[in-house]
Amino acid sequence: MKRVYVNEEWCLGCHLCEYNCAYSNSGIKDMVKALKGKTITPRIHVEDGGKIHYAVSCRHCEDPLCIKGCISGALTKDENGVVTIDHDKCVGCLTCMLLCPYGCITTDENETVLKCELCIKNGGIPACVQGCPNRAIIFEEAEE
Amino acid sequence: MIMPINYILPEFEVERSDYRCIRCRVCERQCANGVHRYDADGDIMLSDEFQCVDCQRCVCLCPTHALKIRKNENELRENANWKQNTILEIYKQANTGGVLLSSMGNPEPFPVYWDKILINASQVTNPSIDPLREPMETRVFLGKKPHDIERDVNGNINTELPPQVELQIPVMFSAMSYGSISYNAHQSLATAAEALGICYNTGEGGLHEDFYQYGKNTIVQVASGRFGVYKDYLEAGAAIEIKMGQGAKPGIGGHLPGTKVGADVSKTRMIPEGSDAISPAPHHDIYSIEDLRQLVFSLKEATDYKKPVIVKVAAVHNIAAIASGIARSGADIIAIDGFRGGTGAAPTRIRDNVGIPIELALAAVDKRLRDEGIRQNVSLVVGGSVRSASDVIKAIALGADACYIATSALLALGCHLCRTCQSGKCNWGIATQDPELVKRLNPETGKERLVNLLTAWKHEIKEMMGLMGINSIEALRGNRLMLRGVGLNEKELEILGISHAGE
Amino acid sequence: MKYVIIGNGPAAVSCIDGIRSVDAEGSITVVSKEAHPAYFRPLISYYLEGKSKEDNIYCRPENFYQKKHVETVLGEAVAIDTNNKIVALSGGENIPYDRLCICSGSSPFVPPMKGLDTLEKQFTFLTIDDSFALEQAVDKDSRVLIIGAGLIGLKCAEGLRDRVKQVTVCDLAPRVLSSILDDECAAVVQEHLESCGITFALANTADHFDGSTAYMKDGSEIEFDVLVLALGVRPNIGFFKDAGGECNRAIIVNNDMKTSIDGIFAAGDCVEQEDITFGNKRIMALLPNANIGGYTAGVNMAGGEQQFDNALPMNSIGFWGLHIMTAGTYANDGNAQMIEEKGEKSIKRFFVKENKLIGFILIGDVKSAGIYTNLVRSQADISAFDFDALIKNPNLLPFGEIYRRKTLRGVV
Question: Selecting from 3.30.70.20, 2.30.40.10, 3.30.300.30, 1.10.1060.10, what CATH number does the domain B12-98 have?
Answer without folding.
Answer: 3.30.70.20
